[in-house]
Amino acid sequence: MSDTLTLDVIGRRVEVNGEYATVRFSGVVPPTAGLWLGVEWDNPERGKHDGSHEGTVYFKCRHPTGGSFIRPNKVNFGVDFLTAVKNRYALEDGPEGDRKEQVVIIGNKPVETVGFDSIIKQQSQLSKLQEISLRNCAVNCAGEKGGIAETCPNIRKLDLSRNLLSSWDEVIRMGDQLKHLDVLNLSENKLQFPSGSPSLIGMFSALKVLVLNRTGITWAEVLQCAPGWPVLEELYLESDNIFISERPTDVLQMLKVLDLSSNQSVGENQLFLIAHLPRLEQLILSDTGISSIHFPDAGIGCKTSMFPSLQYLVVNDNQISQWSFINELDKLQSLHSLSCVRNPLTEGNKDAQTIRQLIIAKIGQLKTLNKCEIPLEERRGAELDYRKAFGNEWKKAGGHQDPDKNRPNEEFLAAHPRFQLLCLKYGAPEDEELKTPQPFMLKNQLLELTIKYPNQLDQKVIEKKLPVSMTIQKVKGLLSRLLKVPVSELLLSYESPKMPGREFELGNDQQTLQFYSVESGDCLLVRW
Q1: How would residue 508 be classed by pLDDT, with cut points 50, 70 and 90?
Q2: Which domain covers residue 48, as residue numbers?
Q3: What is the pLDDT of residues 331-345, one digit of tens each?
Q4: Based on the domain organization, do 446 and 430 belong to the same domain?
Q5: Where residue 484 sits, what CATH number does that domain have?
């Protein structure tokens, strides 16, 4: 870069020895001669000052050590889009070893990009490229007008993360030439967004996935640009310091996935502003600091009209410490999957399995918890254990086996909003169930079970007393000796008189009868 730089460099993104910065000043810095660039580093630890030198303020930084003065010849201002494409993919621009197939992350999804092996087969026909990664390639602009459309118009998936783009206008110039573009990753570009009317911000007519992690975009800018994304389905805004300030109106109506991770300003009241996005299926709120949520339009046992399509919620790494948060999630109409790890409610010295069972019991429609499927038998066991665990509290609060006398107080119902429903499902807990078992007494740990053989009608039905702590594997071993049948051929399930007509598989050999909530009076079904 020559020493004849103009003020046009102000605001440009630059790279210096692998570190990224924004130019804030261009000029002379006495007493030294020659031209200097004043830059504000993305990493403030890389700098030495706040833009001042010997008492004179040349530019300002957000951090006291975020600035440096650098000679222009030490700075990389980057290249245009096509130059970067040809440097990475074109056959004539480098030895074979320079390009390899690689996997990049678009949002949360791995995407295999086209590398040298594929390109050599196509004899460097860039027009056939559909998936391109230009991550960390110092791209700073679209380049010559019409050049992208002429050279590689068929790009569908484009990774432009960690480049030197500084203006959304340059992104628009690229998008206008890529009519088939449906996935775009712009993460880690510090972009300036337009302040004009929506009609001036460009149209990405086919774009379905947009990744803007760590770009510094604001919520107002999202809504301003959103008319240009008419069919957008996935939007990733991680670590953008987002504060949701207004409701999306006539924009983002096709959105299915929204990632707001690591935006510490996002809170309960802000979520209500996006609660009526009609197609939103997945909401990622990891590391936002959220600790509470309440749906005021739905009472105990009712469903909220908010987030009508939400199926998957991620609230990892937050400050959730109260069961009221979990209770509220049961009000969501469509919630099937929840990820809720590394929260005060779930961490510390607490038993992970017990916490899991409580969450399952409290959210009735949940099918997956922390990426682990909830089998039917686990749900039944969790709900029966919950019914027993809080049965005495229910009675003290006014609960009763007689429906006409069953009037638990509001405090209990607020803390256990599904308890009444579980009583309808399994029957109210009997006094015998709620007695505290005497420890270390074998008779209090034995289950009286009937054993039947549905496929072997000539086998005699027997009665057996088995310890509640007995594993399924040991039960199979016992039956194998009785029946003279190899353990590997035995399949076990059970029926309960409390759930007539339903059969529950005992599929995990390492779990106990107690885990599956097998009770005295149940019938063990054996097949081979």
Answers
A1: confident
A2: 7-74
A3: 999 999 999 999 999
A4: no
A5: 3.10.20.90
Decide: 266 and 244 in contact? Cβ < 8 Å. yes
Whether a cis peptide bond, with omega within 30° of 0, leads into 31 is yes
**Six-digit token pair at 92?**
């004539």
**Residue whose pair of structure tokens reads 């109106």 in the numeric block:** 249
Number of domains the chain contains: 4
Residue 314 vs residues 19, 236, 336, 361: alpha-carbon distances, Å = 32, 14, 12, 19
Residues in the chain: 528
Asked if the structure places residue 297 within a domain, the reply is no
DSSP 3-state assignment of 28?
A: strand
- Verify that 124 and 60 share a domain, yes or no: no
Q: Give this prediction's pTM.
A: 0.78
Give dist(CA 36, CA 93) in Å, integer.
33
Quick one: how far is CA 477 from the chain centroid? 43
Give the SS3 label for residue 64: coil
- Together in a domain, 219 and 129: yes
Nearest to 74 by CA among 44, 34, 43: 34
SS3 of 268-326: HHHHHHHCCCCCCCEEECCCCCCCCCCCCCCCCCCCCCCCCCCCEEECCCCCCCCHHHH
